[in-house]
Design a protein that fits this description.
Strands 1, 2, 3, 6, 7 and 18 form a six-stranded mixed β-sheet that branches. Strands 4, 5, 8, 9, 10 and 17 form a six-stranded antiparallel β-sheet that branches. This protein has a four-stranded antiparallel β-sheet with strand order 14-13-16-19. It is globular. It is mainly beta. The chain has two helices and 22 strands.
């Protein structure tokens, strides 16, 4: 018996290359970023192409105009001194996109920057992944939650993202022993209180940290950002989230079916992917320094070679082999002992992070 599988690419009426807009402006001091790219047609095995050479500006309902500059191809940023969003104002994004010998104009609908309430608190709870029994200490993880509410009951739609930073300390006495690692997560985390009696959210999950990472080994910090959304943007994120969790079938939602708030001036029927987001932002940071059972030791198998005595020169040292431990010979005839690794990250923490301590990091005792 035999069988075969043939790739099937359905014939769709979507444009071969659709404009993709990723942008968020806030009331926080600093630069705001708009990213432009072109989505490739279904069946093309490639990532979206950054779209450079565009003219990008933001206008408000008071007649002010703010031009953005292109920092890298396809990424356009505001002037951190000249522009800062203000709650209550309406903002519109304008794009002039080159297309061969002509240009195409795109424009967003005016979007109001809604105020956002502060986060009441961010906190964590230990969770049991595997129970303790006998001499086994068990395995624990960490679930991070937040509480928030709006006293005036105006903020019915919320979105969150977060930045995390954790300190690592290699178990070897080496120059680059201590580092900090930072990540930014843009997972679609949204909630609506429209059906609630009160505009209040409690025990909303932010993220879960398991034992298979060293995030909780020494000290961990998370900065949670809270954004205010209007109902249209909330529905946009809700539909987009449904795509990320769907199994992928011909009847699933496709990105082009999610309505954007941008239109093409010359051709209003043209599909545009993405959303121009406008929001106030509130943030809350916590630090976690606690003992969690069962955290995996990522450096348990670092040592690969031990040399007792031997020559001073080791071929490939610093190239494909690195020193973890080096004790000189003693006057009592003890030989020199060196331990080597074939994994650079075991001997240099800058492979994963930086030795520069973040400005917000407290003085460790």
């Amino acid at each position: 018996m035999s069988s075969c599988v043939s790739e099937f690419i359905p014939q769709l009426t979507e444009e071969e290359e659709m404009l993709v807009v990723e942008g968020l402006i806030t009331d926080r001091q600093g630069t705001n970023t708009i990213k432009l790219s072109k989505a490739l047609p279904l069946g093309v095995r490639s990532e979206a192409k950054p779209l450079g050479g565009c003219n990008v500006k933001i206008t408000d309902d008071l007649g002010n105009t703010f031009w953005l500059r292109e920092s890298v191809t396809g990424t356009y940023i505001t002037d951190s001194i000249m522009f800062r969003g203000v709650a209550g104002r309406h903002y519109t994004l304008h794009l002039i996109v080159p297309d061969g010998n002509r240009t195409i104009n795109y424009e967003s609908y005016p979007v109001e920057m809604l105020p956002v309430p502060p986060i009441d608190r961010v906190y964590y709870e230990k969770t049991v992944i595997r129970e303790q029994f006998g001499n086994f200490d068990g395995i624990e993880g960490c679930q991070i939650y937040l509480d928030t509410h709006d006293q005036v009951n105006n903020s019915k739609f919320y979105r969150w993202d977060y930045q995390e930073t954790w300190k690592i300390r290699l178990p070897f006495d080496i120059p680059n022993q201590t580092c900090w690692i930072s990540n930014t997560f843009k997972d679609i985390n949204i909630e609506s209180t429209l059906a609630f009696k009160e505009d209040r959210i409690e025990r909303h999950p932010v993220t879960f940290i398991s034992n298979v990472t060293d995030r909780l080994k020494t000290k961990y910090s998370i900065l949670v950002n809270q954004y205010s959304l209007n109902e249209n943007e909330y529905n946009y994120w809700k539909k987009l989230k449904s795509i990320t969790v769907s199994v992928g079938g011909l009847h699933d939602i496709i990105p082009a079916s999610i309505p954007s708030n941008l239109v093409c001036i010359e051709n209003p029927g043209e599909k545009v992917l993405g959303y121009f987001s406008v929001s106030s932002v509130s943030s809350e940071r916590i630090f976690i320094k606690d003992s969690f059972s069962g955290i995996v030791d990522q450096y348990a198998k670092c040592a690969t070679d031990t040399l007792i005595g031997g020559p001073d020169y080791i071929e490939g040292l610093g190239i494909n082999i690195w020193t973890l431990f080096d004790t000189p010979a003693s006057p009592f005839s003890s030989p020199r002992i060196r331990i080597f690794t074939e994994t650079k990250g075991c001997a240099d923490c800058t492979v994963r992070g930086t030795t520069s301590k973040p400005s917000f990091w407290p003085l460790d005792k």
